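Hi Y.,

Following your request, here is the sequence exactly as I used it, all 469 residues.
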Amino acid sequence: MLTHLNTKAMQLGIVERFITQLELNLLRVPDQDNGYGPVKEALADLSELSDGEFDTETATRLAEHLEQGLGKWQRHLADRDEKIEAYHIRRYCDGLRTPLKQSVFVSLLRFYREIPRSRQTQSKFDLVLTRCFSTQINDLFRSMTVSREEVAKRLKELYQKWDGGESPGSSSPENVAGFDDFIAENDSLLDFPSLTASKLFDRIREYKASLSDRFWEPAVAAAALECNIVVGNHLNGLMARENENLGERFGAEFDFAGTLQDTSPNAGERVTEVLREMDKQDPLLSRDFAEQDLRLIRSVIDLSSSGENIDAALSDVPSLFIESPAFQQAIRDLSNGEASLRSCSEDFEIELDLADPIMDLNPAFAGMVEQESLRLTLTLACLRARDFSSYEVLSAKTDLIREIFSRAEILNAELSSEASEALNGMQRLTILNAMMGELVKTERAFYLAMAPTRSASSDSNAATQRFTN
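Below is the corresponding structure, written out as tokens. Let me know if you'd prefer a different format.
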């Protein structure tokens, strides 16, 4: 009994050091009262006993004292861990020059299995399990260090040790089969657009969350681990093939694959934070492949979004500026020739980096295509300048904003090929290009601003920064 408790004390000590390192990494001051005091006293009493003094009554008293202390210490660590996300663990581990020893991950597995369960603790257990039984073989791919069957076997043995010899219950074949189905479907998705359209990551996250306590069963956890590796490797490979430079950079700089399978409630918003940080260090959009880069960025953010970040209580969200009477009147004036892009931009105090012929064009003398393109150009610029400061508004108006983006893309695709054949072909092409330039800048600002602003006590100042145009 005392050996079992002593082992738990050593493992909690490893967890304590790990959490402390994370807190320091996040520029937080670790709690001075670490909860270890009662455990330290019990262990000291134990070490002072000689074999002759060690009797059943003393052992029972020490075991009770030690068990109570371990419970208090574990609860204290759980309170500290509650302020840490799976994202922080992932970033910390990826930033280490030398991977952590397996004993650290085993201690963390025990910790996350024994504290109160939630989507956060499930996502951390899932992450720690994956890192415990896999290794990074290059910038894009991970490999399991043992087979799925061996992982299940080792988990069963660990659970028995932790639970005092009690054998864990058997897993339901249906729960294991769910992950096998995801793996099989993943293998059939042969290009990145197909993977994006399949909503595979949404369904994996939902399935993991639906398993609740069953997720910890050895065979189920082992199947989830293999799914993480196989689907994650496939994603990284398809991203690199879709967009060689940016796709490979994504796979090398951050574990997007792991985050996209993360059941944490706010995992999706962390993706946008990472993209903003990456863009700040080195712009994500290249000059020659801006639209291609933006498509990949958009797809990655769509993959990470489960819709849970939108607060259902936001029934009184303010309207967008582009929904205001003033803007709607400007659109009418622009269409009937009573205003130009230049006059509207001056009235609304927005900057439009367009050539003078476009800025001063009188739409009344242009065709319907040109008029709609000019209206969309002004709409996109006003969205970017006036409506991207509030996450709550963006969340509530996402569908409307994406409809505007989609309309601009459709208009460009339908008409750009015909522009050279029309009587005013060059003018039409120039206007379409101006609209698409505004679309690229506005989409970039939108997709990379879709994370809530955090308070000053957050772990990173980068979370409060937004991309500039």
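DSSP finds 22 helices and two strands in the chain.

Thanks again,
Q.
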